[in-house]
Amino acid sequence: MEPQARLLSAILFHKHRQVEVALNRSVLAWKEIERSRKRSPGISNSAETAHSHAVQVCEIVAVCKTKDDDQDSKETMKSQKKAKQHSHLYPHAFTVSYIRRTRQHQWRCGDVTFHSANQGLCEQWIHVINEQLSLLTNRPKSLLVYINPYGGKRHGRRIYEQKVAPLFRRACILADVIVTERANHARDHLKTEANLDKYDGVVCVGGDGMFSEILHGLVTRTQTDNRVDQNQPDAELVPCSLHIGIIPAGSTDCICFATVGTNDPVTSALHIIVGDSQPMDVCSVHHNDIFLRYSVSLLGYGFYGDILTDSERKRWLGPARYDLSGVKTFLSHNYYEGSISFLPAENNKGDPRDKLQCRSGCRICQPKPSSKDTQWEISEEKEKSDKDGMGGWSVIRGKFIAINAASMSCACPRSPRGLSPSAHLADGTTDLILVRKCSRLNFLRHLLQHTNKEDQFDHSFVEVHRVRKFRFQPRQHELDSLEDLSDSPKKTGFSPICSAQTTCNYSTSHSSWTSDGEILPHAAIQVSVHGQLIRLFARGIEEQQQCVLEDPCTLWALEPSTYQSVD
Ligand SMILES: CCCCCCCCCCCCC/C=C/[C@@H](O)[C@H](COP(=O)(O)O)NC(=O)CCCCC
Ligand SMILES: Nc1ncnc2c1ncn2[C@@H]1O[C@H](COP(=O)(O)OP(=O)(O)O)[C@@H](O)[C@H]1O
Ligand SMILES: [Ca+2]
Predict the structure, then answer these.
(1) How far apart are CA 550 and CA 23, in angstroms?
(2) Membrane-spanning residues where (predicted)?
(3) pLDDT of 390 above 90
(4) Is 208 considered catalytic here?
(5) What letters, b where the CB count within 10 A reaches 16 and e where it falls short, cover 492-504?
(6) Are 450 and 406 in contact (CB under 8 A)?
(7) Is the CB of residue 103 below 6 angstroms from any atom belonging to ligand 2?
(8) Among 24, 273, 372, 564, which one is most buried in terms of CB atoms within 10 A?
(9) From the CA of 317, which ligand is nearest?
């Protein structure tokens, strides 16, 4: 990497020690002077060595003048005297708040305070750093925040006020906050009322259900503004211009976990502040050419549909409702008959079993070619001609315990690799997982493999396909006879230990689809994936510590620029 010119450098004080501080367009670095002279510096190519530190400018949250009360407030009794003397000698200070990576994808806001005898120098540093931050145009300045006070353990409001709002204030982000008063309040407000021109993004504080409200509000508003008819399953939807941020405060929070790597409100707030951008696929779901819903994580029929249906009645239990309904549904061991037709993804989209996990900067999820791109047009054309004669579509009939479409990994704390560990966030496909009728023991093995490192697809009764579109038709809709209307739910070899939701009537011979945790009213559905329809304030899961810093040493080796000032 070409080293960049220094914008500023100075000798300042940090924790009573003299440090040399330097700034260029991408890095702020500081190192102790005395110690590094005494010892051989031996600075490695990392963000931080024993006495040398560096922070990327794009990961600086804010810089401000340090108030007297803040100075040395964390000093121990022993060093308080020394601190007093020091602050007398160097009474001026500024504090840089920056992103600090801790364990397992968690971010925290770290502070570093630099002292000086020279007030003008401190002001110059604040000015130049702020100038650099203002060049980062992807950062949001104004946000619309919706809080679901009843999501998860009902801590949404507190989480926002205590953990998120102070960070937004520090980063000078203006936030208009709406605490929802009913289900679909946020969706309806976004659809028709909200003045979206005022904002750079919309933030939801809640779970996947709350995210789904924001998704529906924004996508529907965008289509209405652009006169796109959502009821047309083949309509080319217009991408949303506003980014969505998620502060996890729900029960599963799978969309946050799968796009950030952790469910932590502070980490999510910091991803919002730095204006991260992660495109995401959205599935549209139709029934007989009538629009039903959008979905970004799990569309599940059978096992997960039954869990969600049952768990809605136990909402008062909070997140534990899924465990109880999960056990109950597992013991019921229902299966459902129907046929699935699907249009496979192109070969360059990889395979659900290829073990190429979607990570920050994923190659497979690079932006799709513009509609002018020839390659793209060819594949669209192929699809049209295929569709006329059902060419390219595959059909599978059978008895299924679960039919799952995972448009992303669906990783969550319950299943850290997710339902489809190699699914991609923004490749324009969904992984269709078909779990056929099998013994309880085999199904249990398959389920347990979601919680460890084994391959959950390595069973004769499980198949998985990467697809662009699919349709499902439950068996009772295929056979239009009275006999079928009285058909009871199908059970495998064992008699049910728990009768679950199944009684002998027509409706219960079907399961329901769950879409991001919400229940759909129809079993027969058509699904299309719309690649990269929305953008989140996230960057995908980082590989490890992704500090793509230039060697901080290069900062010290450079000729000073016009900005240089030394104390
Ligand atoms: C015997 C051990 C069995 C362990 C099975 C673990 C498999 C878990 C896979 C979970 C995939 C979850 C996909 C995400 C779905 C969410 O959108 C949805 C709603 O979330 P929220 O609004 O935040 O509550 N949550 C669920 O569908 C919960 C599924 C729980 C299944 C046990
Ligand atoms: N004020 C409210 N009162 C009741 N329900 C609400 C309110 N705000 C949002 N909801 C609904 O609550 C449901 C669950 O929300 P969510 O935040 O996903 O929590 P959880 O993860 O616990 O399911 C969603 O369907 C959402 O539409
Ligand atoms: Ca996808």
Answers:
(1) 12
(2) none
(3) no
(4) yes
(5) beeeeeeebbbee
(6) no
(7) no
(8) 273
(9) 2
Mutate to test the pocket of ligand 2, among 210, 212, 257, 308 (most ligand atoms within 8 A of CB): 210
Average pLDDT of the chain? 85
Cβ of 250 below 6 Å from ligand 1:
yes
Pick the catalytic residue from 68, 69, 200, 208: 208
Domain boundaries, the chain: 6-137+546-557, 141-276, 282-360+390-530
Half-sphere exposure of 461 (CA within 13 A, CB side): 19
How many CB atoms sit inside 10 A of residue 39's CB?
A: 11
* Ligand 1 binding pocket includes 253 (Cβ within 6 Å): yes
- Reported as a single tens digit per residue, the pLDDT across 60-78 is 999 999 976 555 455 554 5
pLDDT at 140 over 50: yes
- Give the integer Cα–Cα distance in Å for 175 and 198: 11
The encoded tokens of residue 343 equal 């249009």
418 alpha carbon to ligand 3 midpoint, in Å?
13
Which of 293, 412, 456, 457 best tests ligand 1's pocket when mutated (most atoms within 8 Å of CB)? 412
516 lines ligand 2 (CB under 6 A): no
Residue whose tokens read 């209307």: 485
3-state secondary structure of 86: helix
Sequence-separated (6 or more) residues with CB below 8 Å from residue 553: 43, 52
CATH topology of domain 282-360+390-530: Tumour Suppressor Smad4 (2.60.200)
Point out the ligand nearest to the CA of residue 298: 1
pLDDT at 233 > cutoff 50: yes
Atom of ligand 2 nearest to the CA of 185: 8
The CATH code of domain 6-137+546-557 reads 2.30.29.30
Q: Decide the pairing of beta strands 290-295 and 513-515.
A: unpaired
Residues with CB under 5 A from ligand 3 (ion): 281, 407, 424, 427
- In tens, the pLDDT along 96-121 reads 999 999 988 999 999 999 999 999 99
Mean pLDDT on 388-415: 91
Q: Which of 263-272, 302-311, 337-346, 506-515 has the lowest mean pLDDT?
A: 506-515
Q: Are 143 and 201 in contact (CB under 8 A)?
A: yes
C-alpha separations of 37 from 20, 33, 41, 170 in Å: 12, 6, 7, 36
What is the whole-number distance in angstroms between the Cα of residue 467 and the centre of ligand 3?
A: 9
Q: What is the position in ligand 1's atom list of the atom closest to the CA of 325?
A: 32
Cβ 314 under 6 angstroms from ligand 1 = no
* pLDDT of 6: 86
Rounded to the nearest angstrom, the distance between the alpha carbon of 361 and the centre of ligand 3 is: 14
Domain 141-276 sits in CATH at 3.40.50.10330
Provide CB contacts within 8 A for 347, sequence distance 6+: none
Ligand 2: residue whose CA is nearest its atom 12: 183
Asked if 491 contacts 508 with a C-beta cutoff of 8 angstroms, the reply is no
Q: Residue 559 has what pLDDT?
A: 47
Q: Report the SS3 class of residue 220.
A: helix
